[in-house]
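hey can u check if this looks right to u? its 129 residues, i copy pasted from the old doc so theres a chance i mangled smth
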Amino acid sequence: MPLAQVSAGIESPFSFRGGDDMARLFWLAVMAGIAGAVVGLVSWIAAYTTVAKLLRSPPPRMGEQSVSLLWRGMPNHPDHPRAWRFAFGPTAIPGAPRVVIYVGPTGRLIRTEPADLAARVNALHNRGY
């Protein structure tokens, strides 16, 4: 039996025909958008968790916070990796009035400004205030 006769009754969800073309294209675009949003949300959650672990619990007063995704890569970094940029200020951390934390999309800590931020946060927590 020829293959055309065997597969004639089976319809692929990706085969476009007649008036269904635009509906299927729209459906695929919506699903791709939802998948992208979920991936972005999971990436942000991983980055936020890394920042929370770095600042410890309870976190010090960090002032205003801004978060941005550096899609074109980190400035002043040799490899220019994509990263989430968490900026805080003014903070209660001694010697660090402004803090910037760069975290990769998978949650890996890339860089902090100041570089010794973890030690400063530990010293603040060990002082008890």
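Residues 20-55 form the longest helix (36 residues).
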